[in-house]
Amino acid sequence: MKSRFVLAALLGAACVFSSCGGDDDPAPMQPVETPPVRNHPDSLLTSWFERAYESEDDDLYSEMLDPGFTFVFLPADRDSFGLELNLDGNGAWGKTSDVGSTENMFDDGTVSDILLELSVTQTRDYAGGDCVDCKEIETNVNLHVVTNPSGASEPLDLVVDGPQTFILKP
User: Hey, which end of the chain has fewer CB within 10 Å, N or C?
Assistant: First the structure.
C-alpha cells in the first residue's frame, strides 16, 4: 500500500516536471479588437479612419461614414486632378462616390503603400447646417499614397500634408 502511494507521488511529480499532458507552447492570446467609439469625434478620426486606411478595409471605411457624408473638393485640388469626377454643383461628392474611390485605391495593384496620420488640433461645436450634435474638428493630415504606374521608372508618391477640417456627426 505504501509503495503504491510512493509510486503515484513519483509519477505525479514526474508529470509536473516534464509538463505531462500539457502544451509546451500554448496558443498566444489573440488581442481583442475594440471598435472605435463613434460618439467620440476625435477617436472616429484618429482610430477608425486611420485603422481603415492602415488595413485597407473599405467596409470599415464605409461603416465610419454617415449616410449624409459629403466630401468637398477645394477648387484648386479639383482642377489639379484633371479627372472627370462625379461631383455635384458645389464641387463635392457623397458617400457612395467616396467609398467607391477609396475602395478602388485600396484594390489598385499599382498602389504599394498607404500611410495616413491624423492629429487633432481643435474640436468645437459645429455652428453651421442642421446638425446640432455635430463637431467641427481641425486636424493636420499626412497622407502618402505610393503608386507604381506601369512604364514609370520610379514610384510616384501622392501626398496630402496639411490642415483639414472635418464636420463629424456622433
Answer: N
> Residue 49 carries which side chain, given as an amino acid letter?
F
0.90 cut: is pTM over it?
Answer: no
How does pLDDT run along the chain (170 residues), one tens digit per residue?
444 433 333 333 333 334 444 555 556 665 555 655 666 777 778 888 888 999 999 999 998 888 888 887 777 766 666 555 656 666 778 898 889 989 999 999 999 999 999 999 999 998 887 788 888 899 999 999 999 988 889 998 888 888 988 888 77
CA distances (Å), origin 44, targets 75, 87, 161, 162? 27, 25, 20, 19
DSSP state, residue 46: I
> Can you say how many angstroms the Cα of residue 120 is from the centroid of all Cα atoms in its chain?
16
